[in-house]
Automatic annotation (TrEMBL):
UniProt keywords, alphabetically: ATP-binding, Cytoplasm, Kinase, Nucleotide biosynthesis, Nucleotide-binding, Transferase
Keyword set includes ATP-binding: yes
Coiled coil feature spans: none
Alphabetical list of SUPFAM superfamilies matching this protein: P-loop containing nucleoside triphosphate hydrolases (SSF52540)
Domain notes: Consists of three domains, a large central CORE domain and two small peripheral domains, NMPbind and LID, which undergo movements during catalysis. The LID domain closes over the site of phosphoryl transfer upon ATP binding. Assembling and dissambling the active center during each catalytic cycle provides an effective means to prevent ATP hydrolysis.
Residue numbers binding AMP: 31, 36, 57-59, 85-88, 92, 133, 144
Protein name: Adenylate kinase
Pfam families documented for this protein: ADK (PF00406)
Gene: adk
Residues engaged in binding ATP: 10-15, 127, 172
Region described as NMP: spans on this chain: 30-59
Principal location class: cytoplasm
Matching PROSITE patterns: ADENYLATE_KINASE (PS00113)
Subunit structure as annotated in this protein's UniProt entry: Monomer.
Length: 192
């Protein structure tokens, strides 16, 4: 199963990806986590990405695609993967399709977690108090949500028009949302 998780900041992509990883037994590939690891390790890529991430803006398409290609060719994604945080604009969506075509591993389904803006802000504010993520400041969150609406939302249509989109209500308990995702992945029973 090759699954792309779409959704605004705070919609629960990371939370649900961890559950899906256990359930599907495939790696969770998060570009946000890969970038945060690079920042923490102080690699040249991390040094370039740090200020951009803290402002809530997107890291350059070229850097993220290079990082993703390296991750998807690491040898453990033969049975699939859950991709979280990529693609974030139409350039990345097309680049992902091209990369996966090259690897012979096309996306099976893109699942969009739908959560209204007020709840997103509330969830991120809750996480900020617990984890103190550098881009969970009110200003960076405003910027992240704006960028999501402008650049990332069209990616939902990209998957819809290519017949690979499932929309899931992301409001409810973590368990409830997880069950809804599983229902979209289950094959439809044959009639008759
Ligand atoms: P990234 O790490 O991808 O962050 P994001 O998309 O902003 O998403 P979040 O991690 O904030 O939210 P989430 O949807 O994963 O929700 P979560 O499960 O954590 O990206 C960070 C930055 O890296 C970007 O801004 C950019 O700079 C850079 N970047 C990454 N990818 C890039 C790319 N492709 N191109 C360019 N730049 C890139 O949940 C949020 C909170 O809600 C948690 O506290 C959680 O416990 C809680 N929660 C989750 N589900 C529920 C629920 N059902 N009920 C109650 N609480 C819940």
């Amino acid at each position: 199963m090759r699954l792309v998780l779409l959704g605004a900041p705070g919609s629960g992509k990371g939370t649900q990806a961890s559950r899906l990883r256990e359930h599907l037994q495939v790696p969770h590939v998060s570009t946000g986590d890969l970038l945060r690891a690079a920042v923490k390790a102080g690699t040249p890529l991390g040094l370039q990405a740090k200020a951009v991430m803290e402002s809530g803006a997107l890291v350059s398409d070229e850097i993220v695609l290079g990082m993703l290609e390296e991750r998807l060719t690491a040898g453990d994604t033969g049975n699939g993967f859950i991709l979280d945080g990529y693609p974030r604009n139409l350039v990345q969506a097309n680049a992902l399709d091209a990369l996966l075509r090259k690897l012979g591993q096309p996306v099976d389904i893109a699942v969009q977690l739908d959560v209204d803006a007020e709840l997103l802000v509330e969830r991120i504010a809750g996480r900020a108090q617990v984890e103190g993520r550098a881009d969970d400041t009110p200003e960076a969150v405003r910027n992240r949500l704006k960028i999501y609406n402008e650049a990332t939302a069209p990616v939902v249509d990209f998957y819809r028009t290519t017949g690979r989109l499932a929309c899931v209500n992301g409001v409810g308990s973590v368990d409830e949302v997880f069950q809804r995702i599983l229902e979209t992945l289950a094959p439809t029973p044959e009639v008759g």
